[in-house]
Amino acid sequence: MACKTLKANLWRNIASVLSSDNPQWKSAKNIVLFARVISVYPSKSPLYSVCERLIHFTEQNIRSVSLVIETMRDEGEDPDIISMIESLREKPTITTSAEVLRLCTVLADYVKYAKVLKVKDSFLGSLDLIDEDDVNIKESVDKVYKLAVEIVNAYDSAAYHEVAHSFDTNNLEQMRNVMADAKDSRSADKTIVTGIRGLNNLLSPGYLSGCLYIYAALPGCYKSGILLESHVDTCKYNEHIKNTTNGKTPISMYISMENTMTQTVRRLWAILFPNADLSMFTVDETIEMIERELTSKGFRSVILYYGYREKSTADLYEIIRGYNDDKHVVVALYLDYIKRIRSARTDAAAMQSEKSELHAIMNELKTIASQFDIPVVSGHQLNRAAAQAIDDIRRQGGFNKASEALGRSHIGTA
Q: 129 and 75 share a domain?
């Protein structure tokens, strides 16, 4: 779908998306975007009216287009509008998720730089007035300068709101965007579920995009195991995630900085095939078995190993970005574990103690989760006081009361 064609058929393309029955195409974020385009670029096109009406019904949570058409007829809607909706349902101009993504990307830029575009013609006209024979050249230059300042301010404002994700009561459009993101983030199609029902209930309802999760436990208490288990479960039980990847293959990424690749793969085999002896199969057979288990739902599994503090959180960002391309997108990151990675910061405030660096690492992992809109899951050690508390309970025979003895003061140095 060429950009020029998209612009020439702007309202038809938006109306085509709104006339579909695909709920992902009509996410809260997309509806807010379409409504913003309508308010910023009013038009006399009949399709503009179609978009207005369809957005109205979607905002009322009436998403079945057949029900919308029926309601329109009952309310005496213009037959031409109904006819156009029916025509778009039969012959849509937007037919794939990739086209919807492209449309929304272009529209987001239209909205983002709307103020710049509105000043453009005045700015160009003022430039034409500047001439060496102009007796009022100072006034002409001053006018150009003021318009240039307006353009710069409009650009800076657009860039600021894109990066800051502000929720400012003086900026209703930005508030709408944030609330739309909040609604979409809890969508079932964006939730990573595990193969453990109790854990899903605890996570309520699973790992959510943009969130950071930390498993805290004593050494040897299956932190690495639960992280690898979650990675496997992401590949095996989350086929629904493909509804949000716009045709790209979802990647679950597991990064170990604790166990070696050999140790991790042996544990992976144990998770996938608990009753099969690895030594009984050839290398090619084991590869085929693992590949079949991890990719049967259309996922790609990526497991990486790096040495102790070999990588920083900035490296993690680049690793994820490197795997995100036209055909693949990372949907979850499992990191084993936070004490073995470096902070991207090197300033004195972050490096003055282990506690301050861990604080910086946690913030940076949270930023990665937010920027890539994925869950980031990692682990951390409980401290010696926690081990002492557990040992005291066990000596007294209270094996099932360990959780009662642990609190925030036992979570490492963080």
A: no
